[in-house]
Automatic annotation (TrEMBL):
Keywords: Transferase
PROSITE patterns in the cross-refs: GNAT (PS51186)
Organism: Agarivorans albus MKT 106
Heme keyword on record: no
Keyword Transferase found: yes
Taxonomic placement: Bacteria, Pseudomonadati, Pseudomonadota, Gammaproteobacteria, Alteromonadales
Gene Ontology MF: a single term: acyltransferase activity, transferring groups other than amino-acyl groups
Domain N-acetyltransferase: 1-160
Family matches, as InterPro entries: Acyl_CoA_acyltransferase, GNAT_dom, Mito_N-acetyltransferase
Protein name: Histone acetyltransferase HPA2 and related acetyltransferases
Superkingdom as given in the UniProt entry: Bacteria
Pfam families on file: Acetyltransf_1 (PF00583)
Length: 161
């Protein structure tokens, strides 16, 4: 089930969130941020945040927010996280599909991912399957802990005219 995220949900997911940011392989977040800083970043600053819950366990989450303001406020941005134990089970796909429906409900016409780490090939393949196009590359934009500086991709999908 996908539903709105609460502070209690975030606290339950915090160990997974912390593991993702400390791995430094997909998010340009401070690996030492506190749970409260992470909650603010993921749940308070965006328009909405959601969780994927199964058998009373929070297995994944996403946020949605405008990608820019003013004349570009019709494009949204989302971020997704799935717990390590739940990866490969289609949860990211369900979260992304849900986020596209929510984006349309909120009046967004497109979705853009500003910085997809190029080594995150599983996510990139999924986004391509879901209709996102790679529209740009930011050279050496991410300091990967094992590979050094790697590129990031800008990905985009038009949701409506």
């Amino acid at each position: 089930m996908i539903r709105a995220m609460t502070q209690a949900d975030f606290s339950a997911f915090w160990p997974s969130f912390k593991a993702v940011i400390q791995a430094q392989q997909s998010y340009a977040f401070d690996p030492d941020m506190s749970e409260q800083q992470a909650f603010q970043l993921w749940c308070e600053l965006p328009l909405k945040s959601f969780v994927f819950e199964h058998k009373q366990q929070i297995l994944g989450t996403y946020y949605i927010k405008p990608n820019a303001m003013g004349p570009s406020k019709h494009i949204c941005n989302c971020g997704y996280m799935v717990s390590e134990a739940a990866r490969g089970k289609g949860i990211a796909r369900k979260l992304c599909e849900h986020s596209q429906d929510i984006a349309l409900e909120l009046g967004f016409k497109a979705m853009q991912f500003n910085s997809v780490v190029a080594t995150n090939t599983v996510a990139i393949a999924l986004w391509h399957k879901l209709g996102f196009a790679t529209i740009g590359t930011i050279p050496k934009a991410y300091l990967h802990p094992k590979l050094g500086y790697v590129d990031c991709l800008i990905m985009h999908k038009q949701l409506s005219d």
